[in-house]
Amino acid sequence: MRRPIWGQLETEALHPRSANLDRLSPRALLALLSEEDRKVVAAVEAEAPRIAKAALAVSRALARGGRVFLAGAGTSGRLGILEAAECPPTFGTDPDRIVGLMAGGNGAVFRAVEGAEDREADAKRFLRRLRSKDLVIGISASSVTPFVRSALSFARGRGALTVLVTCAPALPGVRGLADVVVAPRVGAEVLAGSTRMKAGTATKLVLNRMTLLAMTRLKRIHGPYMVALRPGSAKLRDRARRMVESLTSVDSGTAAQLLDAAGDVKTAVVMGALGLSAAEARRRLARTKGDLRAALSRAGARERSRRRRARARR
Question: Of the candidates 1, 190, 269, 277, which lies 20 to 30 Å from 225 by C-alpha distance?
Answer without folding.
Answer: 277
